[in-house]
Specification:
single chain; about 325 residues; alpha/beta; Quinone Oxidoreductase, Chain A, domain 1; 2 domains; 7-stranded mixed β-sheet; 6-stranded parallel β-sheet; globular
Length: about 325
């Protein structure tokens, strides 16, 4: 089958950074399902994994962790799907990715796609949805009760990005007052459109901006951009007994002592953890994707697709990586077959 892979980690401007290849078509066994790929989405993790480094692969490495497609074959132990089902999922970072005609994934981390969405619209959702959901409900401990959340606030740093676009919708729907950060008119507009009640500029002092809007602190913070840059400000505005979560690795150690007097907590969110470590609760990703699909079909959660390209091939993927590397993306970039 056709696929796109790499053996050398090169700048995306190099034609050899991503190349067209032909590999054997896999077959589903055990709890795996084989999916005919209809659309994929490109994420910052794709760019990070592909980024230049002094390393070579003996066999081509295939990237890609956002898929919408049709189940073509199921393993003998599969109980959640059957051939013909339309699915969406993010997969596992330690397995071959989805830059290919067909893709294998464990049934426990996939779900049936929203019926009201096209494959392209659905492909924009899985990775960012899992990240946002786990960050809010598993790491920050946000309640799903609107009554409990009444009067509580969350700051989402980089609200117009892929994860932020989902997190603002979920947090708003479940009753939190959502404060997003953005720095351009178009990102401010996007953030408000997707659920932010208020938007502040992440290039300016957080506390002074919040105080002008009547906030002295926030109950939750979800950091989706430069944990290092924003750490001191996050520690300053988090409420006593508040919670902070981040998805962005640091270059320097964090000073957790800044949170001690407030008894505030900090947690990392990495959506591949469950699949990577084969945790016993990894079916929770199937369940949350299934729940979000229902919210989408009810018109509560909207897809965050903002740009679409055609052709899952090396040339198109290099273009997509260039766009994601620009750090100017709003929402998600999707490629259809």
């Amino acid at each position: 089958m056709k696929a796109v892979g790499l053996t050398k980690y090169l700048p995306i401007s190099d034609p050899e950074s991503l190349v067209d290849i032909t590999i054997a078509k896999p077959h589903a066994t055990g709890h795996d399902i084989l999916v005919k790929v209809k659309a994929i989405s490109i994420n910052p993790v794709d760019v990070k994994v592909r980024a230049p480094k002094d390393k070579e692969e003996q066999d081509p490495k295939i990237l890609g962790w956002d898929v919408a497609g049709v189940v073509e074959e199921v393993g003998e132990e599969v109980t959640l799907f059957q051939p013909g089902d339309e699915v969406y999922y993010a997969g596992s970072i330690d397995k071959p990715g989805c830059y290919s005609e067909h893709h294998l994934v464990e049934e426990n981390i996939a779900a049936k796609k929203p019926t009201t969405l096209s494959f392209a619209e659905a492909a924009a959702l899985p990775l960012t949805t899992i990240t946002a959901w786990e960050a809010l409900f598993d790491r920050l401990g946000v309640s799903k009760s609107k009554d409990i959340n009444k009067g509580k606030s969350i700051l989402i740093i980089n609200a117009a990005g892929g994860v932020g676009s989902i997190a603002t919708q979920l947090a708003s729907y479940f009753g939190l007052t959502v404060i997003g950060t953005a720095s351009r008119p178009e990102t401010v507009e996007w953030s408000k459109k997707h659920g932010a009640h208020l938007v502040i500029n992440h290039h300016e002092d957080f506390l002074s901006q919040l105080e002008k809007e009547g906030f002295s602190a926030v109950n939750y913070i979800l950091c989706l951009h430069s944990t290092d840059m924003h750490w001191d400000q996050m520690a300053k505005i988090i409420a006593p007994q508040g919670h902070i979560a981040s998805i962005v690795e640091t270059e320097e150690p964090l000073d957790l002592d800044l949170l001690k007097s407030k008894s505030a907590s900090f947690a990392w969110e990495f959506m591949f953890t469950r699949a990577l470590f084969q945790t016993e609760d990894r079916i929770e990703q199937h369940r949350l994707l299934d729940e979000v699909a229902k919210l989408v079909d009810q018109g509560i959660i909207k897809t965050t697709i903002n740009e679409q390209l055609r052709g899952i091939n090396a040339s198109t993927l290099r273009t997509a990586h260039e766009k994601v590397e620009s750090n100017q993306m709003i929402g998600k970039l999707v490629i259809v077959e």
